[in-house]
Amino acid sequence: MLVLKNSGQTSLKYIEVKDLNSWKTRNIDLRDYDTVAFDELDDDVWVLVPGYLKPAYEAINKQSKLLEELIGSDNIYNGIQTSANNIYIHTASKEDETYVYFSKDGKTWKVEKTLTRPYFKTSSGSDNLNSYRPFKPNSFVIYPYLKTTSGIEFVRMDKLKAEFPFMHEYLMAYREALSDPKRDIKPTPETDSEWYRFGRHQSLDKCDVPSKIIVGVLSQGNKYAIDYYGTLISSGGTAGYCMITLPDEFPYSVYYVQALLNSKYLEWYSSLIGEVFRGGYIARGTKVLKRLPIRTIDFTKIEEKNLHDQISATQKDLIRIQGEIDTNRSDHRVTDPLQREFDLKKTELNQALVRLYGLSDMDDQIPLISKMYEAN
């Protein structure tokens, strides 16, 4: 609800209604309000925080750096865009050292493995993307590019035909569909024989790294998985994925960054600067990820370093345990004690995060986003 006055103002008052009946009867504490000066607002997203949560918000900011400042803006990026996923992305029926085999349109194909890359296709099963599940690609993508000393280079038609005849045969079978002007290939192809390029060239040189965090753009949390397979993923508005790569010689563990991104602190922060949909789904694209505050560590202080290492080790243990649970899903004699171990480790992680942020009584006031929106 927006209440306006027909007179000049220099600030606004903001309140977040937690209990509708209390609000109707004006049973409201003054500390629930926050006063925001207009000169604190800009053309970007307005971050409006209830008054009682403002101290926690400011405390988190004070001890943190924005993710983009910590790792560099270029290390937070979108996935690939083929503009023809039904032609490029497949599930392998089998593979050997040289070829990948798959079926499409009632025909079995084989293509040279060199021109493929592992790919993750959205899944709702036991292989779904989850912060506490070992990540594995579940499909592959046709990839008409090669990594050279000059970077990622498109495999041109003469080379494709001479050195990759099976891939050439497959792509030629779908030339008409791939040549459709609606694919709108960017940058614009230099010749008429480049119709099998991806729709966009973005991120091709960034995905082939030893490790990266893959982020589900629209999620209710627990959507930060660590990839060690050089997996490609697709962007595409709220339905796609983003990626985070840590720089070389970076002192922070990838598990530490993952644990913080997945914590209640940054879930809440994401809800403040991102778009929240019904059911507590938060859109966290690259714009939101870049602005998330990462608690910095003074590695010269043994207590802080130990806390960083504990959080990293516990997060890694949780992923290992969840992997064992998934492997033994049908045997409760195995999974029941594993689940108890997982729950204990999760409690240990939460306690370590409480110590990390040191918010004291303010910590309990930070809302769990899943609880805030569960009735909606």
TrEMBL record:
<dbReference type="Pfam" id="PF12950">
    <property type="entry name" value="TaqI_C"/>
</dbReference>
<keyword id="KW-0489">Methyltransferase</keyword>
<dbReference type="GO" id="GO:0009007">
    <property type="term" value="F:site-specific DNA-methyltransferase (adenine-specific) activity"/>
</dbReference>
<dbReference type="GO" id="GO:0032259">
    <property type="term" value="P:methylation"/>
</dbReference>
<protein>
    <recommendedName>
        <fullName>site-specific DNA-methyltransferase (adenine-specific)</fullName>
        <ecNumber>2.1.1.72</ecNumber>
    </recommendedName>
</protein>
<feature type="domain" description="TaqI-like C-terminal specificity">
    <location>
        <begin position="169"/>
        <end position="294"/>
    </location>
</feature>
<dbReference type="InterPro" id="IPR050953">
    <property type="entry name" value="N4_N6_ade-DNA_methylase"/>
</dbReference>
<keyword id="KW-0808">Transferase</keyword>
<dbReference type="InterPro" id="IPR025931">
    <property type="entry name" value="TaqI_C"/>
</dbReference>
